[in-house]
Specification:
The protein is α/β, with parallel strands linked by helices. Helices cover 38% and strands 14% of the residues. It has 11 helices and 9 strands. The mean pLDDT is 95. The structure holds N-carbamoyl-L-aspartate.
Length: 309
């Protein structure tokens, strides 16, 4: 099957293993395209896409916009802090006004869990979730798995540890779903206050000792401490967090094996990851960013094929 089983990309939990295969095969093609001298294809010349960002973003927003432009779609951008949302407009009204301008696909980042699902039930457009609160960030998980597949040949059977602020991370949840769907083993590691209680119900083990977690894994995906989502203190001090859960060259050297280092960005250098590790040959952080464009092109292209033109 070369088609997606879903009408929108709202979360990894709605996907089947074949969807991931289809997205990756399509992304392989687009990765080749974006490395050509002319990095553009005319595929979506008749499609209009709105990028609605109700939360801050650098990488994800630029990556989606570039992916859309590489496919030759028409693109409009919207940031909540410069919009009429501040004047009291509802989400559905904002989006329906944008759709009245004949938009086919909406890419949305929103602070509320389930915002994408809600929108998909109320408006007539394809919805791509670019992050809904602490819930899911499906394109990030897809590009993360794609990058593991590129580096290690396959995701199946690999051991991945997700380290840090799992509680507030939509990247973690989407990665857990995506990795398990592809037959990888997943553990999480971090302060117990930053590990959600429900994690074991997802078949994910918790390892609170960083050294043991790193000895076990093939890949470490390091998360940022998301202070902006914290209303209370979850650990005593940043210095203590770094001592217990920070990835540095010394701990990696002590493992006696190489592991792959990933981070979704933005990095807090010297907190969850040291600069030398982030910039080392074991780190695939910038490959993740490059692959993000190809994977997003694939998702947008595949959803656009379902639109009757
Ligand atoms: C992440 C996000 O916004 O969820 N970043 C991203 O999309 N690349 C993670 C983070 O903000 O730490």
């Amino acid at each position: 099957m070369s088609e997606l089983s879903v009408e929108h990309l709202l979360g990894i939990k709605y996907l089947k293993p074949n969807d991931i295969d289809v997205i990756f095969k399509t992304a392989d093609h687009f990765k080749e395209v974006i490395n050509r001298p002319i990095k553009k294809v005319p595929s979506l010349r008749d499609i209009t896409i709105a990028n609605l960002f109700f939360e801050n973003s650098t990488r994800t927003k630029l990556s989606f916009e570039l992916a859309e432009k590489r496919l030759s779609a028409d693109v409009i951008n919207f940031s909540a802090n410069q919009s009429s949302v501040k004047k009291g407009e509802t989400l559905i009204d904002t989006v329906n006004n944008i759709l009245a301008m004949k938009v086919d696909i909406v890419v949305m980042r929103h602070g509320n869990v389930g915002a994408g699902v809600f929108l998909s039930k109320h408006v007539n457009a394809k919805i791509i979730n670019a992050g809904d609160g602490t819930h899911e960030h499906p394109t990030q998980a897809l590009l993360d798995s794609y990058s593991i597949r590129e580096k290690l040949g396959t995701v199946k059977g690999k051991r991945i540890v997700i380290i840090g602020d799992v509680l507030h991370s939509r990247v973690a949840l989407s990665n857990i779903f995506a990795l398990q769907l592809q037959g990888a083993e997943v553990k999480v590691c971090g302060p117990t206050t930053l590990i959600p209680k429900y994690i074991s119900s997802l078949g994910v083990q918790v390892e609170t000792n960083l050294k043991k977690a790193l000895e076990w894994c093939d890949v470490a995906n390091v998360l940022r401490v998301q202070h902006e989502r914290m209303d209370i203190k979850y650990f005593p001090s940043t210095r203590e967090y770094t001592q217990l859960f920070g990835i540095n060259q010394e701990i990696l050297d002590s493992l006696g094996k190489k592991i792959v280092i990933m981070h979704p960005g933005p990095i807090n250098r010297g907190v969850e990851i040291s600069s030398d590790v982030a910039d080392s040959n074991d780190s695939i952080i910038l490959n993740q960013v490059e692959n993000g464009v190809a994977v997003r092109m694939a998702v947008i292209y595949l959803l656009a094929q379902q639109i009757k033109r």
